[in-house]
Specification:
By secondary structure, this protein is an alpha/beta fold. 44% of the residues lie in helices and 17% in strands.
Amino acid sequence: MPITKTSNYDIFYIDEGEGFPVFLIHGLAGDHKAWLDQIGYFKSNYRVIAVDNPGSGKSSPVTKPCTTQELANTMLEVMENLSIDKAHIVGRSLGGFIGQWMVNTRPECVKSLVISASAAKVDPIGTRILKNMKEILEWRGNWTDWARHSNHLFFSADFFNNNPDVVKAVEAIVGDEKRSKESYLNLNDTALAHDFRDRLGTITCPTLIMAGLFDPICSIQCAYEMRDNIPESELVVFEKSSHFLLVEEYEKALNTLDNWFKKN
C-alpha cells in the first residue's frame, strides 16, 4: 500500500502513467476513488497522482482543527516526496481550497491550477449547507443518515430524478460507516474557515474554474468572484450540473480537462 509520510500525516496515494504530472485532490466527502475515471483516461499521456486527503480514505485521521494552508503544505510535501517539481494541480471542492494555497505558497510548483466546484470562500448558502451537514452527523451519529440527508445537494434536480442508480451508488459511497467522523467534523470547520478572497489577485499561473450552474455548496456566484479576481482565469460553466459536475456532465468535464492540459 503506497503511503508517504509528511510532517503531520501519512498520506495514501496512487501514482499511474508517465508524462507531465497531474495532481488530483478530492473534496470533503470523498477519497482518491472520486478520480478513478479521470485516472483511467489521463494515465496514457500523463503521470497521474491522486491522494487520499488527510482524514479521508487510507490516510491519517485529522484529530484536531487544521487550516487549508496546512493541508496545502501537506500536499506540497507529497509532491516533494514523489520527486514532482511541477504539476497541473486539479482540486475539487475542498481540494480547490487546498490548490489555492499551494499556488500561493509554492507558485513555482504549479504549472496550472484547476478549481472545480469550489470557491475562494463559501457564500451564505454554502455556509448554511456545510453547517447543516455537520449538525446532521453530530445529531444522527452515523454516515447512512448523513448521506440520505445530504446526497440530493450534490446533484441537479434533473440528474437526481433521472439517474437513480448513480445517485444510489454515490449515497452508498459517502454513507460508508468506516469513514472517520472526527476527521469530517474537523475538516468541515476547515472548509468553513477557508478565505482566499484577498489573495486571488496573486495567482498568476494559468487557472481554469469549473462550476456547476445549480451548485448550492460552491455557488456560481463564487465562481464569478474567482473569475473576476484571478488574472486571466477561464471559467467553464456546466449548465446542467450541481456540485458533482464531474459526474453529471462527465464527457464535457473530461474534454474540458483534456483540452486544458494540452493547451498548458
